[in-house]
Every structure is written in structure tokens, then in C-alpha cells.
Specification:
By secondary structure, the chain is of the alpha/beta class. The protein has eight helices and 35 strands. β14 and β15 form a beta hairpin.
């Protein structure tokens, strides 16, 4: 399985390189194969020492060491439980009843749906391990889940705190020219019709009054960013194989060590949320304990940050589900005009929370406000997803509060406010070999998102008369600025300009002013480009392609697995 999984990545990379070469030749593009097979940041010892580059190869299901398998799962045909395609009836209650009957068991189970349309109008919660929803394909003759109305007509007690937070902060979308003065909805970045959760477990902190005491297994005192070993005060409560969460806090204000760790003193607009909430971890890492030697603990994945005296770091238990998958179907919503940004009604597809080692594969989502949303998940693979439709969407596949999540071969065919987005608390996650057809933005949405990777992304751009485009524009609220912390990375970003070919003048790609220490490697297009990014960005190989590292993720994965 390991060999097959790696072969899939490498074969896809080789094919993409060949196709890219043929396309470039046909279009007489400016992209060339550089003399060196690798950029300096992967081959020059001095540059490698001075310019830290995170190892992204741990992203994905099982850290991309094997693919999900349902070979030993029991298959339940939902028709045997009164759930029939194409009968014109709402299937929500029958599906909820089936899931209630399965809830007390963790026996690996596939819910097999036939081809045809199923109607869903209630939130379907998935709150047990080892459960897969499988259709007969995402094509026209496959399985379709149809959602006739938005989530505003459903009950979601899990979002009570978020709703209260929006009211308490008087969050209003104000667009005078569009006659918009409307309160934010809780569905703008949360919730979905297919929803993984641990019942009654708070997923995200919004208000202090709902805080509970922070749980502690050990207090780390020493560790090196990118290393695997940390020193703790005691390992008595730890065990090998356990999934834990490392949490970096800040109760020391604007000049706390974690603030410098994140931004390196390079930005002066660090938002107040970085120090206002003592019980809110600014950085989190979920990982498996693989060895314990006295007070030395070895983790499966490299440390997100340094740990040293003065830092406030906690090693905590992390409650989660595992092995939940969604595959081979379409999710369709009726077309509804967009009202405004942040006041989405909740035409949301899949909402992944509290999941470790899960997946979404071969899913098409049409006319959604948000196709797939995430919160507090790790080691997830989201592959071969298409979002489309006439609806102006908020998100396609969004990554928020995630760690080591891999989104591969996402095709964004619809107009989306944030088509690819690393959102609040996203870390060490990857968009790989994905494309944006309309008004692309590689969004980094503030909220301490850090050490994330856009890898082999293709975008369509229409130029204005200024021959520049804000591809790297970052969003997010001012109290969570800057747009990102150190070491977010762009690798082999291919821009397909739809116009502007009559001029030999290069095109400026910009939009990011406050995200520090980015790594921007091999940005190229079918006309020459140059890149502005700051502060202290490391930019290399613009208008070049490196044949031995077309994909950074795949290069790092191959190297890691060959050494194990």
C-alpha cells in the first residue's frame, strides 16, 4: 500500500510535468527548465541553513504513508433500511435512524448509496469511528445528494456560542453602495449538512465564559523547530501510540516569546487577539507519541515551533474521531443569489471537526456557499474534489484550525470569495496540484495561519491595463493580522494569463504586504512575471521550473520515505 500510494503521487507529478511542458511549448510560454535541477533552498547548504523550510511531507491521511482502505469494512446497503434513490421523498430521518442504530459500535462500516438522487434537509452528524459514506460516483450517472434548503432552517446547538459571539461583537456586514447592513450569520464559515463531531464537545473557543480548565498531561520545556524530540517535566501520564496536542499560549502580552517566534519582529500590526485571550492557544499541533525515554518524548511529526524557557507550552490530550470517509458522490444545492459576504444562509456541504485520519475523495459540490469547511482536524486527505455552479460562493475547500491536511487535485470552477484559503490556526497543510478558473486568490486569512504550502497551483488570470494582479492578497479581521506567520510557502505556481500577450512587459504578481518570511519558489506563467512579497520573503526561480522538484510535497515525501 505504501509503494502504491507513493507511486500515485510520483506518477501524477511526472505526467503533470510532461503535460506542462507540452502546454508551454504549444503556447510558446516563457517558463524554462533551469540549469540546476533543484533550487538553492533544497541544494545549497548555506541557503538551507539560513532559510528554514518546513517539511510538508507529513500532510494527509496517515501522514501520506498509506492510502485509506475499506477492504475489511462491512458494507451496508442503505436501501435495506428504507433509503431509496429517486423516490422524491426526504431521506433525512431514515438516514438519521440508521446512524442512531450504528452509533454504539465502532465496527468498520460503509454506508453504500445507489446511483440516483437522495434528498437531505437535516444535518447528518457522523460521530463514531470507522464510518464511510460511499456513492457510485460523482458523474452524471452516479450518486447525488440534493439539499433543497439552507442550514438557516436547521437547528445546530454546536454553533450557539458562535452566534452569541457574533451578536456580542455586533458583527455587521456593511456595504453602503449595495444597501447592505446585515448581521453576520453563524453559517458563513461553520457548519455543513454532512458534519463530523464529538457530541457535546466544544470545538472552537469564542467567548471566555464557556471556558473550561485547560487539561495537562505534561509541561514541555525544550524542543527544536523541525525536530522530533521534546523534553517534558514528567512522562508519567503519557503513552506510546497516544495522539496528543501541543499548545503554545500567550499570557505575556505583545512582546511574548511566541509572538517573536511567529513574526520574527518583522511586522508592526500584530492584532490584539494574539494576547487578549489567556486560554486561547496561538499554535497547535496534533501528533502521535512514538517513543518515550524518561523525560524525552519523540513525536511522529516535526515540532511546529521551538520550545524553550519563557514559552508557555502545554501537552494536552486531544479527543478525536478517526477513519471517517466520504467518497464518490455529488452534493447539489439549488441556485440562490448571493446576499453578501458573511451573511451566507448555509448552503454548506461537508463540515469536518475533531477528525484524525479521515478523507474525502471524488466529490463534486454544486452551488454551495462553502463546499467543505474544517475545524480542529489533522491528518486528513481531501482528493479529487470539484466545486462548480452559478452561485458566488464564500469558500470552496477551506482549511481552518487544521494540522497536516492535504487537499489534492481540487478544481475550483465557480466564482469564490476565497477559492483556496488557509484560515485561522491552519498549520503545516498543503494545497497540491489544484486549479482556480475564476478570479484566483491564494488566500491567507490571518489568525496565525503558519507554515502552509501552495504547491503546483494553476490559476487563470485576466489582466487590467496596469499589468499586475494581487494573487497573494490576504484576508481576515484586523484583530488577527498579519495575514500569516512565518514560513508559508508557494511552490511552482503557474499563472495562465487570458490576455495581455501582445506586450513583452512582465506582469507583477503581488497583494501581500504583511506576511513575513514567505518562501516563494518557481512562480511562472505564459507571459513573464515578477513577484513582490514582503517582508523578508525568500524568492527564487521566478519564471523557471525545477525538473527534480516540480512539487515540493512530493519531493519531500519521496526523500522521507526513502530514508525510513
Amino acid at each position: 500500500m505504501l509503494k502504491l500510494h507513493l507511486t500515485k503521487h510520483l506518477f501524477a507529478g511526472t505526467m503533470a510535468l510532461s503535460l506542462a511542458a507540452m502546454t508551454a511549448s504549444a503556447a510558446q510560454a516563457t517558463v524554462q527548465a533551469i540549469g540546476a535541477a533543484l533550487p538553492d533552498i533544497l541544494s545549497n547548504e548555506k541557503v538551507m541553513k539560513d532559510k528554514f523550510l518546513p517539511d510538508y511531507s507529513f500532510a494527509g491521511y496517515a501522514n501520506s504513508e498509506k492510502a485509506p482502505s475499506t477492504q475489511d469494512f462491512t458494507v451496508i446497503n442503505v436501501a435495506d433500511h428504507g433509503i431509496f434513490a429517486n423516490d422524491g421523498l426526504d431521506d433525512s430521518q431514515a438516514l438519521l435512524t440508521l446512524l442512531d442504530n450504528l452509533r454504539e459500535s465502532d465496527e468498520p462500516t460503509v454506508l453504500q448509496f445507489s446511483k440516483g438522487r437522495y434528498i437531505i434537509s437535516s444535518i447528518i452528524y457522523f460521530d463514531r469511528n470507522n464510518l464511510v459514506v460511499r456513492g457510485e460516483g460523482s458523474g452524471a450517472s452516479g450518486t447525488e445528494f440534493y439539499f433543497p434548503r439552507p442550514l438557516i432552517y436547521t437547528e445546530a446547538p454546536e454553533l450557539k456560542e458562535l452566534k452569541e459571539y457574533l451578536v456580542s461583537l455586533n458583527k455587521i456586514q456593511k456595504e453602503k453602495k449595495n444597501n447592505i447592513y446585515l448581521p453576520f450569520t453563524e453559517w458563513a464559515w461553520s457548519g455543513g449538512y454532512f458534519w463530523t463531531r464529538i457530541k457535546d464537545l466544544r470545538v472552537k473557543k469564542y467567548l471566555d465564559k464557556y471556558d473550561v480548565p485547560i487539561r495537562t498531561l505534561a509541561t514541555p520545556s525544550k524542543g527544536t523547530q523541525g525536530g522530533f524530540i521534546l523534553t517534558v517535566d514528567t512522562s508519567d501520564k503519557l503513552k506510546v501510540g497516544e495522539i496528543i496536542e501541543l499548545q503554545w499560549y500567550n499570557t505575556k502580552g505583545e512582546n511574548a516569546p511566541i509572538i517573536n517566534e511567529l513574526y520574527h519582529g518583522l511586522v508592526d500590526n500584530v492584532g490584539s487577539h494574539h494576547w487578549r485571550f489567556a486560554n486561547l492557544a496561538l499554535a497547535r499541533q496534533q501528533s502521535e507519541i512514538v517513543a518515550i525515554n524518561g523525560n524525552q518524548v519523540e513525536l511522529k511529526t516535526p515540532l511546529l515551533h521551538n520550545i524553550h524557557e519563557g514559552m508557555e507550552v502545554n501537552l494536552a490530550p486531544w479527543e478525536h474521531l478517526s477513519n471517517i470517509g466520504f467518497e464518490h458522490f455529488t452534493m447539489t444545492f439549488p441556485f440562490a443569489e448571493r446576499i453578501a459576504h458573511h451573511v451566507e444562509q448555509g448552503f454548506n456541504g461537508i463540515y469536518l471537526t475533531r477528525l484524525y485520519n479521515g478523507w474525502v475523495d471524488d466529490v463534486k459540490i454544486t452551488n454551495a456557499d462553502s463546499g467543505i469547511l474544517t475545524e480542529e482536524v489533522a491528518n486528513i486527505s481531501i482528493t479529487d474534489v470539484v466545486t462548480d455552479g452559478e452561485k458566488f460562493a464564500h469558500y470552496s475547500v477551506q482549511m481552518g484550525a487544521v494540522h497536516n491536511v492535504l487537499v489534492e487535485n481540487l478544481q475550483v470552477k465557480n466564482k469564490v470569495e476565497h477559492p483556496l484559503s488557509f484560515n485561522t490556526f491552519a498549520t503545516k497543510s498543503v494545497y497540491l496540484r489544484s486549479s482556480i478558473d475564476i478570479d484566483p486568490v491564494l488566500d491567507q486569512h490571518s489568525g496565525v495561519n503558519q507554515q502552509n504550502l501552495f504547491d503546483m497551483i494553476s490559476v487563470n488570470v485576466t489582466l487590467d491595463e496596469n499589468r499586475q494582479y494581487p494573487l497573494f492578497a490576504g484576508g481576515g479581521a484586523s484583530y488577527w493580522k498579519p495575514s500569516h506567520a512565518a514560513y508559508n510557502t508557494f511552490w511552482n505556481i503557474n499563472v495562465r494569463f487570458q490576455n495581455g500577450h501582445a506586450s513583452a512587459q512582465s506582469v507583477l504578481l503581488n497583494g501581500m504586504k504583511d506576511g513575513p518570511k514567505a518562501r516563494v519558489i518557481s512562480v511562472n506563467g505564459n507571459v513573464p512575471v515578477h513577484v513582490e512579497y514582503g517582508p523578508d520573503a525568500y524568492i527564487e526561480g521566478t519564471n523557471w521550473v525545477y525538473p527534480e522538484a516540480e512539487s515540493l510535497f512530493e519531493y519531500q515525501l519521496k526523500k522521507r520515505l526513502s530514508q525510513e
